[in-house]
């Protein structure tokens, strides 16, 4: 759960797998405000910090604002490679002296 001013605005479901994290879904209760982007960016930074790959399937939510192509492009802008419905993001190398866990504002 990702909160803004103590109000939940993004929910995501992840599972730890052998050597990677599976991102089942991420959705915002307030689409179009950038909260989903901020939450995913924070999650990617955390995965980079620990050197963990993120994998998942692209599944647009029923009634959601983004269709498959738009959602695929959204993930690709955040460093995910997309092959059909599958997506993957390799961790970026973060120098330890610069590593931090930024909290999006």
Looking at this protein, list some descriptive labels.
Aminopeptidase; 2 helices; 105 residues; alpha+beta
Short description:
The chain has helices at residues 35-50, 68-77, and strands at 2-4, 7-16, 20-28, 53-57, 81-83, 86-89.
Walkthrough of the structure:
This protein is an alpha+beta fold and 105 residues long. It has one domain (2-89): 3-Layer(aba) Sandwich (Aminopeptidase), CATH 3.40.630. Helices cover 25% and strands 32% of the residues. It has helices at 35-50, 68-77, and strands at residues 2-4, 7-16, 20-28, 53-57, 81-83, 86-89. The protein has a six-stranded mixed β-sheet, with helices on one face. Helix 1 links the parallel strand 3 (20-28) and strand 4.
Q: Layout of SSEs?
A:
Elements: E1 2-4, E2 7-16, E3 20-28, H1 35-50, E4 53-57, H2 68-77, E5 81-83, E6 86-89
Parallel strand pairs: 3-4
Antiparallel strand pairs: 1-2, 2-3, 4-6, 5-6
In the CATH hierarchy, the third-tier topology is known as: Aminopeptidase
Roughly what is the average pLDDT, rounded to an integer?
79
Percent of residues in helical segments?
Answer: 10-25%
What's the shape? globular
The total domain count is 1
- Report how far the terminal alpha carbons are from each other: 15 Å
CATH architecture: 3-Layer(aba) Sandwich
Most strands sheet:
6 strands, mixed
Residue fraction in strands: 25-35%
The helix-and-strand class reads: alpha+beta
Report the uncertain regions. Answer: none
Please write the string of helix (H) and strand (E) elements: EEEHEHEE
Individual helix count: 2
Let me know the CATH homologous superfamily.
Gcn5-related N-acetyltransferase (GNAT)
Rg (CA only): 14 Å
